[in-house]
TrEMBL record:
<feature type="transmembrane region" description="Helical">
    <location>
        <begin position="92"/>
        <end position="113"/>
    </location>
</feature>
<feature type="transmembrane region" description="Helical">
    <location>
        <begin position="32"/>
        <end position="50"/>
    </location>
</feature>
<dbReference type="Pfam" id="PF03817">
    <property type="entry name" value="MadL"/>
</dbReference>
<keyword id="KW-1133">Transmembrane helix</keyword>
<protein>
    <submittedName>
        <fullName>Malonate transporter subunit MadL</fullName>
    </submittedName>
</protein>
<keyword id="KW-0812">Transmembrane</keyword>
<feature type="transmembrane region" description="Helical">
    <location>
        <begin position="62"/>
        <end position="80"/>
    </location>
</feature>
<dbReference type="InterPro" id="IPR004690">
    <property type="entry name" value="Maln_transptMadL"/>
</dbReference>
<keyword id="KW-0472">Membrane</keyword>
């Protein structure tokens, strides 16, 4: 049933938000740090596990697929509501938490491009 897919997504979202709040408190930032991202990763892992175990029927998968596609607009909307001034005034750790992932992504792009080229050749 489609509602099961929505339920799985809701579970992942709640767990991701809790984990994002926990990480924020852990690093001393009064904000949710990556809650939607953690939820997306959890959704991917659960979805993959359910497929491997053949527990996922077509309608449940459709429910997951529909709402997982809605994540990008949700992330954009959440980003628009973030208070950057508060994050920057929270100290060096907040700035570092923003800069480090960007630098890691920039560093990984050549590696991903190389993997992509080698998989297209095969």
């Amino acid at each position: 049933m489609i509602i099961y897919g929505v339920g799985i997504l809701a579970f992942c979202y709640v767990v991701g938000q809790i984990f994002g709040e926990f990480i924020g408190k852990l690093i001393g930032v009064d904000a949710n740090v990556g809650g939607v991202g953690f939820a997306m990763i959890l959704l991917i892992l659960i979805n993959d596990w359910l497929k491997k175990k053949n527990y996922l029927d077509t309608s449940t998968e459709k429910g997951i697929l529909f709402w997982s596609q809605m994540y990008i607009p949700i992330v954009v909307a959440m980003s628009a509501t973030q208070n950057v001034k508060v994050a920057v005034s929270s100290g060096f750790m907040a700035i570092l938490a923003g800069i480090v992932p960007v630098l890691i992504c920039i560093a990984v792009i050549p590696f991903l491009a190389k993997i992509s080229k080698s998989s297209q050749i095969d």
